[in-house]
Amino acid sequence: MTQRKLPTRVVRVSYNCSAGKSGACEAMLEEDPDQNYENVLAEIQSFELPIEATLRSVYDDQPNAHKKFMEKLDACIRNHDKEIEKMCNFHHQGFVDAITELLKVRTDAEKLKVQVTDTNRRFQDAGKEVIVQTEDIIRCRIQQRNITTVVEKLQLCLPVLEMYSKLKEQMTAKRYYSALKTMEQLENVYFPRVSQYRFCQLMIENLPKLREDIKEISMSDLKDFLESIRKHSDKIGETAMKQAQQQKTFSVALQKQNNVKFGKNMYLNDRIPEERKEIELKQGFEEEDENEEEILTVQDLVDFSPVYRCLHIYSVLGDEETFENYYRKQRKKQARLVLQPQSNMPETVDGYRRYFTQIVGFFVVEDHILHVTQGLVTRAYTDELWNMALSKIIAVLRAHSSYCTDPDLVLELKNLIVIFADTLQGYGFPVNRLFDLLFEIRDQYNETLLKKWAGVFRDIFEEDNYSPIPIVNEEEYKAVISKFPFQDPDLEKQSFPKKFPMSQSVPHIYIQVKEFIYASLKFSESLHRSSTEIDDMLRKSTNLLLTRTLSSCLLNLIRKPHIGLTELVQIIINTTHLEQACKYLEDFITNITNISQETVHTTRLYGLSTFKDARHAAEGEIYTKLNQKIDEFVQLADYDWTMSEPDGRASGYLMDLINFLRSIFQVFTHLPGKVAQTACMSACQHLSTSLMQMLLDSELKQISMGAVQQFNLDVIQCELFASSEPVPGFQGDTLQLAFIDLRQLLDLFMVWDWSTYLADYGQPASKYLRVNPNTALTLLEKMKDTSKKNNIFAQFRKNDRDKQKLIETVVKQLRSLVNGMSQHT
């Protein structure tokens, strides 16, 4: 005991010393060794922590500390042993007394065991006779009970056999439901009475086989039923869609009558129903007279008795869940097959129609099963099945409709989807996602319409002669006015024959834009959208037609190489009238949708900007082509730059060019004044620039004074043309300023007024302000080289020598001016 307790106490001492008290222990050992050893032993007995530090303080202080500490430790151990011995001596007598008492009790227990054994033996001997008599009584009573039971069971056997015979007859007659009821009676009523007999066990063992046979037979009937409805799904769906279409047609007719009754706007209903009927005829939903054809229902087309019979049989068998699972599993498989599209479905509307009729037929059958049976299908099951089918349908339609490039086919597809959605909505299936899909298809439909109308516009532009529309009588005038909203009091007052300012393409384009609006409106019908939304859709699609399709066609037309200046002028006139007609298109849409243009959210047509952009492009093309034509004439120039004397008349190419410009600017009289003025100014500036470039051409090395004089005659003709005001509206000599650079340059060389030029150079009032020193230097050097070559004996004539020196002096001064300009720059 001391040895187990001592280490624990040593641990306690070690903890205190490890906490920083080792120094204190060492100090105590130095002061009083005996007393200190006593304290250390007290710490060892009082603490349960490591004693390494405490022992280290004992062993590390003095050389003989270990021996003294061990002596003290042995003395302490001897004291504890004495105390333990005293305690044991004190309790020893009580322990001896307890052992003595236990020995006395063992003797009494053995006596009691002998007495109990003897008593049990005597009881067993006395009860043997009673047991024998009791067993005889029990045997007699069992025999009596068995006899009674046999009589009762024999009385039950005949009814059981009769019922089993009846069961066999029902199985032979294929009355399976009655047979199951008979089995149920046998099991619940008759078999329990005779279940212990062997013949009953045989019957009981045979009943599961009979039930399995009934199960197999009824399941076979169900499989035949499922195969039958799979084959007839399209017929069922077609019938259901016909009925939905008849109901919708009736509703539309009733709404039309109400609109007429209350005086509502009939613009939309006057045109669209007839066209919608044509589309519906193409869809194959032609309706016969209701009095001649009886409306069929799903019960008329399908015999559901196999389902009812199979359901009742499985319900009686208690295996209704298995039947439900099998039915739902098979129907889900059929649903996946129905939802699988045919490979050629996007090609014709018949493929889409068959696809929709099969799906409708499938869900019409499920809806009927839902309402006439309890638990076979549930609303949650049909909703889950419909959501799965709807996702697949939307994915299929989204994928296949993207291949449709014919707007008529897209429109027929839309009408099929609407009838499909209305039919299933009538059976309680949610179809909002289908109408959301129709909005996606609507965008695609608009794209196909835009592509189609792009071809229509191209054909119109190709067939147009780009000349004003001639009319010779009142009928022709009214025919044009009926197609295009043109108002001009001055034209009305003119006598026949007369001309409209626009060409034939303008009324044709206006009519086609209206046809596009009608075509776009066809898709918006039956989408269950408000008039405001339809108005917004029409305006947005019309804006796309104007800003993208028509604008692109106009720009492509303007950029075509074979379109000449006359055609471009007519295109500008046409776009002006089409721009003015945009307000009538807005009124046209307003009359269709009955939504005022003053509504806050009404979208405006962007035709104004479209036609303005086209007109600006045509104007730019006019300027470009006019300059190109000028370049063609200028390329015909054939100057003899070394001639000594001028011809006395302007060059032929230049006169032809001026005549051409006069005739062209006569055509420009129908253009807006600013356009004609800009074109005239651009032509004159380009001509002036071309003539200047001709003089300064780097390939031209020599120019004689006679050539300059001849060139001056051509420039005079250009100035005369500019002063003749080929296009009205120019103020003063504005147009002549286009040739001012040439005029001042030629005057400088013709007059040879170099002193004035050099003296006044840089002055605002200089006579030759527009003459650039570099230009003058280039031309002068070409004339200097000509003078040297043409005057071989110039050094023998004093006048020629003086002129040559003057040219060299002017050249030096011009070069100094050019160098000064370059340094300044």
Automatic annotation (TrEMBL):
Residue ranges of domain Exocyst complex component EXOC6/Sec15 N-terminal in the record: 72-241
Entry-linked InterPro entries: EXOC6/Sec15, EXOC6/Sec15_C, EXOC6/Sec15_C_dom1, EXOC6_Sec15_N, EXOC6PINT-1/Sec15/Tip20_C_dom2
Superkingdom, taxonomy of origin: Eukaryota
Pfam families found in the cross-reference section: EXOC6_Sec15_N (PF20651), Sec15_C (PF04091)
Domain Exocyst complex subunit EXOC6/Sec15 C-terminal: 434-782
Keywords: Exocytosis, Transport
Role summary: Component of the exocyst complex involved in the docking of exocytic vesicles with fusion sites on the plasma membrane.
Record family assignment: Belongs to the SEC15 family.
Protein name: Exocyst complex component
Organism: Vulpes vulpes (Red fox)
